[in-house]
UniProtKB/TrEMBL annotation:
This is Enhancer of mRNA-decapping protein 4 C-terminal domain-containing protein. One of its GO terms (cellular component) is P-body. Belongs to the WD repeat EDC4 family. Residues 1-95 form the Enhancer of mRNA-decapping protein 4 C-terminal domain.
Amino acid sequence: MYVCERVAPHQVFTQSGPLLQQHVLLSLIQQLSADMNHHTEIRHRYLEEAVMNLDPKNSATREHMPAVLSALHKQLQLYISLHPNAPIAKRVRMLQMATQSLLA
């Protein structure tokens, strides 16, 4: 969280592509989704960018993406069920839908 709080997502996820390799994106998703109840806003911003920058055509991504995104989906569902009226809940639902579409 230390780095995420000090570096804006647009500095990591540029228009020319993310500065992080696919396996690092998967690890970032896994780590950030572990506890959505703390630093939710920053976690959401990074998770949204990381999910949108996954490359399902990459062999390493394709291999590990189902497990990582399934865990993310569960954590997002848990957050929504515990905080249905939170200001960020609608955006978390949108991320959950994007995650679900990548799992389909």
